[in-house]
Amino acid sequence: MFLLKMKKPVLPLLVCVLLLAVIPAFPDAARAVEARVESVETPYPETAPGRYEGTVTVSVYSPTPDANVYYTLDGMTPEATSPRYDGTPIVLTESANLSLIAEKDSVWSEAISYGYIVKSSERPLLQFVAMSDVHKGPGTPEQEQEAHDQYTSNFDVIASIFPNPDAIMLIGDNINDNWNGLGPHHAFIREMFEAQLARKGWEDTTRIQFAMGNHDATVAEARSLYPAEWFTEQPNGYYEKTIGGYSFFFLNGNNYNGDMEQRNWLKERLAALISEPGQFNEPIFINIHQPILGTVMDGQQASNSNLYTDLKDYPQAIVLSGHSHLNINDQRSIHQKDFTSVNVGSMSYIQVERGYSLITDEGVVSRFELPQNQAQFIEVYEDRVEIERVALNADAGSTFKNGVWQGGNRTPFKNKGTLAGDKWVVKLQGDTAEEIKENFIYTERNKTAPAFVENPQITVTENVYGVPELSFRQAKDDQLVHHYDINIMNARTGEDVKSYSVASEFYVSPTPSVLRMPIEGLSEATAYFITITAVDSYGNRSEKVQSSFMTGGSAPDPKNPADLYTYEQLTEKIGEAEQFAAYIASTTGLSVPAQVMSALESSLAGAKALTANDQAAIIDQAYIDLMWALRTGKEAIVYDFIPKSSFTIDSYSSYDDFENNLPHYILDDDYTTIWHTRWKAPVPSFPHWIVIDMKDTFKLSGIQRTSRTKLSAMEFPKEFQLYASDRLSDLSDPAFLANEENRANGVFGKTSTGTVYQDFVALDKPIQGRYVKLVITSTYGTGSFTSMSEIDFIGEAVAPAVTAGDLNEDGNVNLLDVTEILQLIVAGSSEADEAKRGAADINGDQKVDTNDVLALLQLIADRLVLTDHDSVNH
Q1: CA–CA distance, 649 with 149 (Å, rounded to integer)
Q2: pTM (2 decimals)?
Q3: What is the maximal distance between C-alpha atoms in the chain?
């Protein structure tokens, strides 16, 4: 059994985390059950949650007499430091999740959240719910009853927000057919929704509209099992409806990309719509199950690139899609560039991106499915569209228990109708398409990094199962903290022992104020160092917080010489540290924060002051201090990349012409756009290459590759070669490319930042030139193609190898350039092209005359560059 002792961080140079001797009791449902000697009931609001206008006044009642009630309005779990409800009603002037908890005699109730949507008094012109991925069907009587119970709860939430909605959009995957003949299950969906419409009395006022999904079997079966007004008689399943005076299109995303009939129909209808009087600034809703490539959630699980092409001239379009199950808490679930795209979430279970771990009842698991259900509540006003993100169920839970798929949580839901984020507002203002786009709000990628509170109270204690449990206070972000990168290292060796990318539980209401996670597989009697970095959904990273701890057990004798670092090892580490410091000092584009470098220099000076005659324990500690200082320095490197706004692509080996993943996208500073080599037959094999014109000459010393945002796509470059020259022709010259002196070699790593794989490589030799050729010889994927979102370089600007005087731009300074200067003199330098005139002024007297001819002749003589043509003319 572990006895865990927190210690000060190994390094004084790192930002220390102060550990409190007594950690406050944070509300934790599981622990409260174990500790309580009497139960404390959950408080509740006497004002029902839902949609209100102007303000809403909320009184809170506690069923447990004399209990202290605490609340928050930021979605986090209340605790003893949160505002205490004193009987004065809470006045809400803007939308919020009211989260409540009660405490008495150190016993805590469960925490619970209630969603309040506060609107202006302006009446909306249209209200509808957009949902996707219902994934229901007939089963056992118990399963069918559970499905009806879930939608009884869901419709109660809908009614609390929209007492009489105009429509409910079912945007694909109503059933769970996987080419296994489950098309008749659509009858169950019809019965389930008709029962709820009848229960609410909405049969004649609320429309149901359906769009085909990839798990909905066939169009023919859906047509035969849904009322005609829910779907269409069109044999390919696409259609148009007018609801409340607004146009809604329902597309078949299963074949849109190659269906010219469907594409032409949509384009003709869109053109006709916006040409009608008064329609130019009206929203047009496009409902399609699969998201469009390059839009929401960084294009994950997206397709139908031709639909992007068809909509790019219509900023009035608001595309509503599902399919991915990706959550709507994430701000990337709305995308605006040429039009607006919105991810509507999932009504069965939601997901975070693959590649993260979740904290569940079974411990920390590599899983991406979550049991919550979400939808978008949309209102159309005269001058805007407002979109409220709502969780129909935001309870904590797990989609798997004991290895058995559970799907979503079961009723009764405790946290239902809570807000999954701030509302989105779409305004279609402008007299032209470009003016409307200029007024889009959600166009920039967020740049604000999360930040921890001054004391995040990192602790590691033993849980009831005898396993170390890490806990820390969650960081804050202007949107949400997506996950934490947690690294646990052996304090003596610096070896990485455990690494996690753990979701922050932002999808749960209320979100835990303190995150707790078990850490299994640690050794006894071992000192560990732990670092935690908060990361938002855009990949912005907080500063690290860190601490250390010791596991219990029988510790080895610290005086055993075999366990101590030697003076020889310290000398090697000193050399490594000096080499690193020299590399940073001599390399343009690299730096280390002054505080970190100062700490490294201090540790280095202390280590160098020792001799082989010093005490073994002192040498040992000096080695450990220097090791951590050096590691911290390497991890803190700041890269000042060469600005690439003027860079262009000169040539390339291939590109993905099916989805237009073009080469120039590696220069646009946008992680969501990629260059992808051709992946449809015929597929070229390695190597793949691309040539970049940097416009000026640079001496390059390092390169960074950024992958695409799809973390499961591992085809990003691994091994590479890099060439540079001021003469473009060199980069296609076999002799130049075969010369090892002209080539830098490297291997990119596989370092995930949470949203992309991003790796920097210091070149094994500097290369210089205006044109740079990247040759990719392998990837981390299994195919013969490659892709990446960005490429960046560090280096310094230098004078070109071909100096001023090369007027004819053949890469040589020769007699042909003399002829160019003579022509400039005859024509009059004032009439000459400015760039030519500048290059022709060899002696720098700001005139182009015979003196420049003489200077150029001397330059030719000095450099002895004569072509065959020069020799003949000479």
Answers
A1: 58
A2: 0.85
A3: 108
